[in-house]
Write a structure and sequence with these properties.
The chain is of the alpha/beta class. The protein is built from two helices and eight strands, in the order E-H-E-E-E-E-H-E-E-E. The protein has two domains: about 55 residues, Signal recognition particle alu RNA binding heterodimer, srp9/1 (2-Layer Sandwich); about 60 residues, Roll (2,3-Dihydroxybiphenyl 1,2-Dioxygenase, domain 1). It has a four-stranded mixed β-sheet, with helices on one face. The chain has a four-stranded mixed β-sheet with strand order 5-8-7-6, with helices on one face. The model has no long low-confidence stretch (mean pLDDT about 95).
């Protein structure tokens, strides 16, 4: 009956700009737009819906309650890190290794927390 997440929504003060950030920095494709809402699709088929947000934008902290980050799967960690660095992306720390996985936290164009991940072995 329940097949999984179809998309995750992010509210943004400028949905178009954030959708374009995902396209420019992470190779997402803006595949659908309606009434100021943008769906962006990653190469593996996962989607984000970027919707208009109201109020002050306060960047989240890693230990705030609620959804904390979106993990971006990469097959070449070093190349992805270098590309983001060259694009001036704001990193929230240094690359690290945890249980054989390579991780790096960074912020999207609105300050939402993302991280690169290259796993030694896929999750079961």
């Amino acid at each position: 009956m329940f097949r999984g997440l179809e998309h995750t929504a992010i509210a943004s003060p400028d949905p178009r700009a954030l959708a374009e950030w995902y396209a420019a920095h992470l190779d997402f494709v803006i595949n659908y737009e309606y009434a100021g809402n943008y769906f962006v699709r990653a190469a593996n088929g996962t989607m984000l819906e970027i919707i208009p947000g109201k109020g002050l934008l306060t960047p989240p902290q890693l230990d705030d309650p609620g959804i904390r980050h979106l993990a971006i799967d990469v097959d070449d960690f070093d190349a992805a890190h270098e590309r983001l660095k060259a694009a001036g992306v704001r990193f929230l720390g240094e690359p690290m290794n945890k249980q054989g996985n390579r991780l790096l936290f960074f912020a999207d164009g609105d300050g939402n927390i993302l991280h690169l991940i290259q796993r030694e072995r896929p999750l079961p």
